[in-house]
Amino acid sequence: MRHLLEIDDLTAEEIDRILSIATSVEAPRVLAGKGAALIFEKPSARTRNSMEMAVVQLGGHPVYIQGHEVGFDTRETVEDVTKTMACFHSVVAARVFAHSVVERMAALDLVPIVNMLSDDAHPLQALADLLTMRREFGELTGRTVAYVGDANNVARSLALGAGLSGMNFRIASPGGYGFSERDADRIVTAGVSIEVVDRPEEAVAGADVVYADTWTSMGQEAEAERRRRAFEGFQIDERLMGFASAGAIFLHCLPAHRNEEVTDAVLDGPQSRIWVQAANRMHAARGAMAWLLQEKD
Ligand code: CP
Ligand code: NVA
Q1: Secondary structure element (H or E) that encloses residue 172, with its range
Q2: 10, 154, 266, 294: which has the fewest Cβ within 10 Å?
Q3: CA end-to-end span of the chain, whole Å?
Q4: Quick check: CB of 126 below 6 Å from ligand 1?
Q5: Is 240 in contact with 215 (CB distance < 8 Å)?
Q6: pLDDT at 138
C-alpha cells in the first residue's frame, strides 16, 4: 500500500505518471461506490474543494470532517480515528498541524493516507505546481524556480518536487527563516541539491518561475507582526520580477496576503498564473488519488 505524506514518497517516474493521469481526458472511476474521508484540523478553500471534486470525478463520495469532530488524541487516538475511517472509506486524507499525525495514520497501512498539508509538507500543492509549470514550459529539466520567503511546508515540498523533476531550486529567506537542518537533510537524502542565497534578487536572477507563499503560516498567527518585520525587503514586486527571465511566470499557492509577500500588480499581472495553478489543484489531486488507489494492492 502506498501513501502520500510528502512528495518524495514518490519517485520522479511516479510523479510523472501522476501528472499524466491528471491530464488524461477520462478520469479512471477508481472510487466508484466508495468513500473518501477528508479531515481538516486547519481551514482550507482550495484543498477542500479540489479534493472533494476530484473524489467525485473518480466516482466516489467525499465526506468533509472538521478536526474537532474526530478530535485527534483528544476524543480518541489518531489510530482509532484512522481505523474508524477505514471501516467506511477507501482513502483517508488529513490536513494537520504535526506531521507525525499523518505518519501515524499511514503506519497502520489500512487505506492510502494523503497529507492535505502538515506543518512540514504540502505534497498536493507541489504536484499542482509541477503540473502548472509543465503546462507552461513542457519539459522542466534545467528550468529554475526561485522561492522568496519563509522556508515552510510549501517551500519544502516544492524544493523536493522541483529537484526530483530535474529543475534547479533557489531560495532566499531572511536570517532564521531558512530550512531547518532536518528539512535540509531530508532534501539531501532525496538526492536533491538546492541553492540557498541571501538576497531575493540573487534568487530571482534569470529564473523561469518566481514563487511566493505567506510569511505567516497557519498556526503561527501569534508571530505575524514579528514576521512582517523580519520579511521586510522580501516582497515580490514588479522591480524584483524584472530580474527573472523574459518569459518568467509568477506562482503562489494561495491564500495570498496582498501587498505583503507580493504586490497586487504581480498577483494580477501578465506573468501571474495563480488561477491556472489553483485550478490545477483538482487535476493533481485526481491524479494522485487515482494513482494511489491503482497502486494499492
Ligand atoms: N493552497 C492551499 O492549500 O489553499 P487552502 O489552504 O485554501 O486549501
Ligand atoms: N504555508 C501555508 C500554506 C497555506 C496553503 C500554511 O501552512 O498556512
Answers
A1: strand 168-172
A2: 294
A3: 6
A4: no
A5: no
A6: 96
Burial label for 153, CB within 10 Å (0-12, 13-18, 19+), is buried
Judged on CB neighbours under 10 Å (0-12, 13-18, 19+), 47 is buried
Strands 209-212 and 195-197, by their bridges, are unpaired
**Nearest bound ligand to the CA of residue 274:** 1
Ligand 2-lining residues (CB < 6 angstroms): 117, 152-154, 213-214, 217-218, 253
The pTM (predicted TM-score) of the whole model is 0.98
The x, y and z cell numbers of residue 39, run together, are: 479531515
Give the residue, out of 153, 156, 211, 277, with the most ligand 2 atoms within 8 A of its beta carbon, to mutate for a pocket test. 153
- The predicted-structure confidence for 155-186, as pLDDT tens digits, reads as follows 999 999 999 999 999 999 999 999 999 999 99
For range 52-65, the mean pLDDT: 98
How close is the Cα of 42 to the center of ligand 2, in Å?
10
